[in-house]
Task: structure prediction
Amino acid sequence: MANYRIAPSILSADFARLGEEVQNVLKAGADFIHFDVMDNHYVPNLTVGPLVCKALRPHANKDGAPAVIDVHLMVSPVDRIVGDFAEAGADIISFHPEATEHVDRTLTLIRDHGCKAGLVFNPATPLNYLDYVMDRLDLILIMSVNPGFGGQSFIPEALRKLSEARSRIDAYVARTGRTIHLEVDGGVKADNIASIARAGADTFVAGSAVFGAPDADRGYRGALGKLRAALAEVGGR
Result:
């Protein structure tokens, strides 16, 4: 269980009190903070930028240390904004291969700025972008909804893509010994997280399933507890 990581997405948080929301969800047991960046160009929505990430950085602490801020860039072009998010306090920066002319160059740019690098795959994006860049990757993110809006339903075909990505990762780890994490984002709930974990995911972005939890359900701690209880049925990765 210790190897499974839950990353609540601030896309579903109360933006009027975002700092407090981040503090509360980390106190409740979240592992990361997932920071969704949308530009109304690559995706049909507009969210937040590096200034908000910088403002949240002092609020994102877990067990007396800085918590991981996991930035998901849904923007095009992507290279220009990488340095701004690194300076703002991002720990992981992930992007979509369609958002850059040179996937390898952008991955290198992220790592040169001192961040871990991730590549994101939409539901219809093939995994063959991975063929020549695994050595640059720290994380692979499989979208189980079409990006742009929170609260969407999980697309079941994502399970097959997760399994394929897990096979690629396991083969790479066996060859090199270097860890790459497999993250999933979109429609993750207590009633499907176990099947998602069985398909190979080790990191789970959950937005409305956490931030939308009613107070009667013990709020964030209760919501995270339900997700972890479902993961316990699968066992640790």
Q: What stands out?
A: The CA atoms of residues 144 and 158 lie 5 Å apart. The mean pLDDT is 94. The chain is about 35% helix and 20% strand.
